[in-house]
Design a protein that fits this description.
Length: 364
């Protein structure tokens, strides 16, 4: 039996490897996962939430470059390496975009950056205020590969950090939906009768409520925030898993191996967990991939409505909300870039779901 099981797994794996789009989507999802975990290491702006604002350079096109005067602060931050890597750096320095500067008699004179043909304010700083370093040590050229948003923040950094929410909400939401859905579906399918009737009534009532409205209601009840959205999305996606598990168990519980398990005196819990569930997980895995994509879309919709991840936290949906009106103002990339990120990640999960469905189909 073990040899046969291993053979079926190897066969499914070989079929999956032959699916180009499935393999491509898998590696793309892994890449997004790595970016999500190490976003602050990869982001040009590694401040917390990539929230370093420069209003003087707002809404600049991709590839924009500017000289930045970095004024060091006397404040010290006690922040560990782990904290910096995974939660961003607490930036206490002041960054000032400048258009030109000169040094005369130990005095730094600079002109603040101003767009649209305006002239920036000219200011001076004594070099002893720069901790006895050369002023050139604090003037660096910054490049913004994706340009800047309407607050002058680095759009590339916001996209990288925003990937964390969209990616991890899929894991949390699917985990919650699997725990509740498998539990409820197993009880309904295995025991039947009144237990099935009650659980199906709960499923049908939950199913009849529009998903977005139910998520909004749960979010408002739990409060606005990061984890509240994760829990709300997970609590609305379990019904599909429960219906699939229920239908599969109703068919599987009449199989001979289940009858043999009962004859050997195994309890119901062992029969469900050790014998039935391992044999019906193929459709559950496929629907979980679809739920990943659905969770990302729901979170993006909630952030667009303003009840998802709250500022200054970066979120692809919130980035579209902030900049969708720029589409008609000649700067559509501010909304198109995060929109393409959402589309590509959702498509990757849908494609890998199709690939898993074909690979796990025993009839093909």
């Amino acid at each position: 039996m073990s040899h046969k099981s291993n053979s079926l797994k190897q066969l499914a794996l070989q079929k999956f490897k032959r699916n180009f789009w499935g393999v491509f989507s898998f590696y793309f999802i892994v890449l997004v996962g790595v970016i999500s975990v190490f976003a602050y290491v990869l982001a040009p702006d590694n401040s917390q939430y990539a929230n370093q604002m420069h209003l003087a350079i707002h809404s600049k096109k991709p590839g924009f470059k500017v000289q930045m005067l970095i004024m060091p602060s006397q404040l010290k931050t006690n922040q560990g390496v782990f904290d910096k890597i995974f939660f961003g750096k607490k930036n206490v320095n002041t960054e000032i975009p400048i258009s030109e500067y000169r040094i005369e008699n130990s005095i730094l004179t600079y002109k603040e950056y101003a767009s649209d043909g305006l002239k920036g304010t000219e200011k001076t700083i004594k070099t002893d205020l720069l901790l006895n370093h050369s002023p050139k040590d604090f003037i660096k050229e910054k490049s913004f590969l994706f340009g800047t948003d309407k607050y002058g923040r680095d759009l590339l950094s916001r996209v990288l950090v925003g990937a964390r929410i969209s990616f991890f909400i899929g894991f949390v939401a699917v985990f919650i939906s699997l725990v509740i859905g498998i539990f409820m579906g197993s009880l309904a399918g295995y025991f039947g009768g009144k237990v099935d009737a009650v659980i199906m009534w709960i499923i049908n009532v939950t199913w009849s409520i529009p998903t977005l409205l139910l998520v909004i209601a749960i979010t408002l009840a739990l409060g606005k925030g990061f984890w509240q959205v994760f829990i709300a999305v997970g609590l609305t996606m379990w019904v599909e898993v429960a219906r699939v598990v229920r239908g599969q168990i109703i068919s599987a519980k009449e199989m001979q191996y289940v009858t043999a398990a009962r004859a050997l005196g195994f309890n119901d819990f062992r029969i469900i967990t050790k014998h039935i569930l391992p044999n019906i997980m193929a459709p559950v895995i496929v629907i979980s991939a679809a739920n990943f994509a659905a969770a990302i879309l729901i979170e993006s919709g909630l952030s667009f409505l303003g009840i998802g991840a709250q500022p200054p936290m970066a979120s692809w949906g919130a980035m579209i909300k902030d900049h969708y009106n720029y589409i008609i103002l000649g700067k559509p990339y501010l909304a198109i870039i995060p929109g393409l990120c959402i589309m590509s990640l959702v498509m990757a999960f849908m494609l890998i779901g199709d690939a898993l469905r074909d690979a796990l189909d025993v009839k093909s």
